[in-house]
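--- STAGE predict ---
source: upstream dedup step, 1 unique chain passed
mode: sequence only
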Amino acid sequence: MIIWWNGLSQRERILVGLGAILIVATICWYGVWRPAVYFHQAAASRHAMILKEKQTVLALVAQIRALGPARKMQGSSKPLAEIVRDSLGTAGITPGRIEPDPQGGVRVAANAIPSTQLFPWIAQLQTEYGISLRHLIVVKAGEGTLNLDATLSDGR
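--- STAGE serialize ---
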């Protein structure tokens, strides 16, 4: 390589040097600068989207809080376990287990529940009966289905 370089004229050395500088500049531009700018813009876009979603969630939380505490339906004298069992049937959810909890609630377990049924059922319990969740574990069971393990309490 040194012999080849020394064999070049001054003018050829300048041209080869300029070509090397051009190649290095092109590699830096397309291999370093452009990807860095792209990733920066993508991160900024994701950040803006997340901030927008956060504002939406905060607005929804404020709306939920404005509704006030959950109220029990007047005249509901059924035991908690019976209310839960009936509401599960109405929601189309087959429970795997419904048993009393030592602390005065009801433990419920069910498998392979579509999320479109599970979360509306929980919301219905809270809004119509004033039943709250003391403990909730939801695990993805399969595509679009969830496994539930929860302890419900009526606040009495």
